[in-house]
Design goal:
Keywords: Aminotransferase, Pyridoxal phosphate, Transferase. This protein is an alpha/beta fold. It is built from 13 helices and 17 strands. It binds D-malate (MLT).
């Protein structure tokens, strides 16, 4: 009899987006004639931009010739890509991050899920509610959660994001080791001001905590006074790790390329109190468990950071931002209390019934797929998320259909 990892038995039924996909599949099988509009998972629909495609093709071409063929790449990713990221995302904006603090990977999903491995099983974890489910599930798998009681794990501390606090969790009064933050937020679309983010960095300094900052949606921030990276805040280099991704920024959900910033100044401690560099640990972890992103993908990713690439991705982002504006306007018109949609591709709104009921109701009545808020945590019950990554014509049609339910 082979024993299972008991932690896995503590997980909730199925991963949110798999459950959504299953229900949609079942509905479509029963109703093959119905045209379903998918505004559920945040998956992009517009093609890669021309300069990215060109670099991708060149990368493949190089792989086809003996003289320019590439085998395994450097552990942290190719220097040309890390250098381009350091320049465009950080140096140009006066932020002190060097290429060797950047780790290229296949996704922010895997990095946010894997990073917790570097910490003791007993560390205390504060997680927002609602939240991207990967932060919760990966800590459950690692044995930090305790049991699930009334929709919450007994050993996590939940940072409540509710209509009452405008979906901005309060800074806890006590100490936690690890704190997950995501801004612009998934799922609520809420953003933090520079001062609000500064308060989190000060908290981490005061208590010796580490902040995991998920910036996957930073490209949607349109107001220059709002932070696009936690490293814009003084002192963040000592207390934060940041996850960034090309998925939503440059349409890489199917191509896979992201990057995690681990500053050399973040320290963790052994039982005996010896300081260890978090950067060195992540390097050790990645070089053991990961063999890098393919060369053509890294070449394609580097093209995102050229002046042409930057211009081209802005056009696509503008397209999604306009979708978000259209959806937000319609939800406001219908009269559901809502947030997001301005510096975010997600529109989050209060529903007149519980989340899964509303999911089924929308699917059956108007064939629109969204994401039920409860899938992001207990506070998400009675809320719903729509994504702006659809095709414009589908978004417009969805809005017309939505208006018929009000
Ligand atoms: C979402 O819909 O929340 C995201 O697309 C999921 C992800 O990025 O993994």
């Amino acid at each position: 009899m082979v024993r299972v990892n008991e932690n896995y038995t503590l997980l909730q039924g199925s991963y949110l987006f798999s459950e959504v996909a299953k229900r949609v599949r079942m509905y479509q099988e029963k109703n093959p004639e119905k045209k379903i509009i998918r505004l559920g998972i945040g998956d992009v629909t517009q093609p890669l931009v021309p300069s990215v495609v060109k670099a991708f093709q060149e990368g493949v071409e190089e792989m086809s010739k003996k003289e320019s063929f590439h085998g395994y790449g450097p552990e942290q990713g190719y220097e040309f890509l890390r250098e381009a990221i350091a320049e465009v995302d950080f140096r140009k904006r006066g932020i002190d991050i060097s290429p060797d603090e950047i780790f290229i990977s296949t996704g922010a999903k895997e990095d946010t899920a894997n990073f917790q491995e570097l910490f003791d099983q007993k560390v205390s974890v504060a997680i927002p509610d609602p939240v991207y489910p990967v932060y919760v599930d990966s800590n459950v798998m690692a044995g930090r959660s305790g049991r699930l009681k009334n929709g919450r794990y007994e050993r996590f501390f939940y940072l409540d994001a509710t209509l009452e606090n405008n979906f901005k969790p309060e800074i806890p009064k006590k100490r936690f080791d690890l704190i997950y933050l995501c801004f612009p937020n998934n799922p609520t679309g809420q953003v933090l001001t520079r001062d609000e983010l500064k308060a989190w960095v000060e908290y981490a300094h005061k208590y010796g905590s580490i902040l995991f900052f998920d910036a996957a949606y930073e490209a949607f921030v349109s107001d220059p006074s709002l932070p696009k990276s936690i490293f814009e805040i003084e002192g963040a280099r000592e207390v934060a790790v940041e996850f960034r991704s090309l998925s939503k920024t440059a349409g890489f959900t199917g191509t896979r390329c992201a990057y995690t910033i681990v500053p050399r100044d973040v320290k963790v401690y052994t039982k005996k109190g010896h300081a260890v560099s978090l950067h060195a640990l992540w390097f050790r972890r990645q070089s053991t468990k990961f063999n890098g992103v393919s060369y053509p993908v890294q070449k394609a990713a580097a093209a995102v950071f050229t002046p042409e690439g930057q211009k081209e991705i802005q056009e696509v982002l503008a397209y999604y931002k306009e979708n978000a504006r259209i959806i937000l306007e319609a939800i406001r018109e219908i009269g559901f209390p809502c947030t997001g949609g301005t510096h975010s591709p997600y529109i989050w709104f209060k529903t007149p019934m519980d989340s899964w009921k509303f999911f089924d109701y929308l699917l059956e009545r108007v064939q629109i797929v969204g994401t039920p808020g409860i899938g992001f945590g207990k506070n998400g019950d009675g809320f719903f998320r729509l994504s702006a990554f659809g095709d414009r014509s589908n978004v417009k049609e969805a809005i017309e259909r939505l208006k018929t339910i009000s």
